[in-house]
Amino acid sequence: MENEVPLSGQSGWRFTVRFLVHDRAALAGLVIIGLFLGWGLVEGVMQYIASYTHVASWGWKLLPSDPISLSLKNSLAAPTLSNLNNLFGANYEGQSVLSQLLYATPHDATASVLVVASAIAIGMMIGIPAGYIGGWTDEILMRITDAFLAFPYLVLAIAFSVLLGEGFTTVLLALVLIWWPTYARYFRAQAISLKNRNFVEASKLSGVGPLKIMLRHIFPNSIDPVIAQATLDFGSVILLYSTLAFLGIGLELNYPEWGSMSSLGVSYFPASWWLVLVPGATIMVIVVAFSLIGDRLQDLVAGRLTY
Amino acid sequence: MKKGLLDSILRTKVPIIRAVEVPHLAIAGGEVLALVGESGSGKTTLGRLLVTLEKPTSGEIYFHGERVKGRRAVMGLRRKVQMVFQNPADSLDPRMSVKGIVTEPLTTKGLSRREREGQFESALSLVGLDSSTFAERRSRDLSGGQRQRVAVARAIISSPEFVVLDEPTSALDASVQSQVLNLLARIHDQLGFTYLFITHNIAIARYIADTVAVMYAGQIVEIGPAQQVLSKPKHPYTQALFSSVPSLDRKEVAPPTGEVPSLVNLPKGCRFNPRCPYAMEVCRTTDPPFFDVDGEQAACWLYK
After folding, report:
1. Which residue of B19, B119, B144, B286 is 20 to 30 Å from B8, comparing CA positions?
2. Domains contained in chain B, CATH given
3. What is the 3 state secondary structure string of chain A?
4. In the predicted model, what is the mean pLDDT of residues B250-255?
5. Please, which residues 50-89 of chain A have a Cβ atom closer than 8 Å to chain B?
6. Percent of chain B residues topping a pLDDT of 90
7. The pLDDT value given to residue A3
């Protein structure tokens, strides 16, 4: 047996995880995202129980207070460390900002995960065949993609939301429609660079059909850069979702949501500054946390860093 | 070159590259044909044409006397041919295990799991790798030589009739080169596949080939029995090419002067005439056909 040293090319999940944990910024990002998604899941389950049992109070069993009913005594209470309920202050209706933030988490978590996952799925189904088959297939699929990309995405989202009517599902749909073209472009570029690699040609010569080649070789080899992009997009989806809510598109206004919370708070700025700044800062922290992971993952994919 | 949408709208003239123009090439069953020539002479393109990885602009390919045309014939041929690529790092899917890679050609044949396992083990032992050690490894865990062995195992597992080996040893260390070469020769003796062995190394051609074909600027200029071509080359290009191989009994190394012509703008007449020391008037006007000389064929007016 020859005793050459194998080329060092570290990758794989274990390596990725070890890398992220050893990098402080990425670790901070991981912890924040873990808390965000974890809490989103717990609170989401609570709200599901509430709607299932028709006992609304289940929805705020774990929160310091009821985020929806009025408690005018508490109106515009300033942030204080002595009272957990008013840690981030209260709004004009006396609802605790902390409770509202926590209550709205499942929606933002669901939005980011669902939108990015669906956008990747659609992008894959459009982009990989376009890149791999090429020719007219590519031409047609990509011109459709371009049409979506050509619109400013905020305008596109507003148009869709107006067209499809109000509601959480509508906003998600609108966001997916905005996001998939980017992924289609990613997958297409990957498919084009992969289709002439020798290992793809080797399986062509083995009589493997195009569909199987796309599933078995093109997709698994193109997913790395897409995942790195996706981590960045989780943050952007939350941002745009909040922007839409801020503009009053999407959920009904009395339902707490990070974007609409700061939107409503604008009228009380700067006297009651916490109403705008706390939800805004929360959005920022989550977006930055996703970006920290995403940046590191992209460095890793591009081979700029080795640990 | 493919025309883009913009090109067809603007009616841009896309230059035609004549990568390979081969009037006729036949490979007998069980034979090892070595295709030698400089880089860029079209050796690889010709090999890829024969296994349907490239479409010929014109001309026909026959396999066992049957023309390969249309999707069905191409898919049918693909089950009977295989190719081993030059760069073993690129020819193995980085995401797949050795077992997945090697047994992929069997997935289209409707074999049971057990039959696949059995064939995997015998293919790996043929290339000198231990199947239980290597089954679950990925390409990145292998050395260059091991990768090329895996690529060879994939090529032979489905018992193809025709294998194109595209410089299978040139990306490997010298010590590993000879191992892989011996392995390929042994497999040929045992299983009797037909090989098209693409190489720029004349020593390798001498070692493995029954027949040698020499390519220059996309054309075959000389073809004949290996001994004949390698010991007494007829075409002036072959002579010049072989004299550039360093040797102990010859002091002088005389590489051919000049450069390989651009494939977009080929010289008129014989493609070698601008560099040929024997160039005559006819060479500058007419492309030479093949002439029989001493049991081989050379495309050169000297042998008219």
Report:
1. B19
2. 21-209 (3.40.50.300), 233-304 (no CATH)
3. CCCCCCCCCCCCHHHHHHHHHHCHHHHHHHHHHHHHHHHHHHHHHHHHHHHHHCCHHHHHCCCCCCCCCCCHHHCCCCCCCCCHHHCCCECCCCCEHHHHHHHHHHHHHHHHHHHHHHHHHHHHHHHHHHHHHCHHHHHHHHHHHHHHHHCCHHHHHHHHHHHHCCCHHHHHHHHHHHHHHHHHHHHHHHHHHHHCCHHHHHHHHCCCCHHHHHHHHHHHHHHHHHHHHHHHHHHHHHHHHHHHHHCCCCCCCCCCCHHHHHHHHHHHCCCCCHHHHHHHHHHHHHHHHHHHHHHHHHHHHHCCCCC
4. 59
5. none
6. 20
7. 39
**The pLDDT value given to residue B1:** 44
Measured between CB atoms, which of B87, B95, B145 is closest to A2? B145
How close, in Å, is residue A260 to chain B by CA atoms? 45
So what's the pLDDT on residue B255?
62
Question: ipTM, 2 decimals?
Answer: 0.84
Task: Record the pTM.
Answer: 0.78
What architecture (CATH level 2) is domain A19-51+98-302?
A: Orthogonal Bundle (1.10)
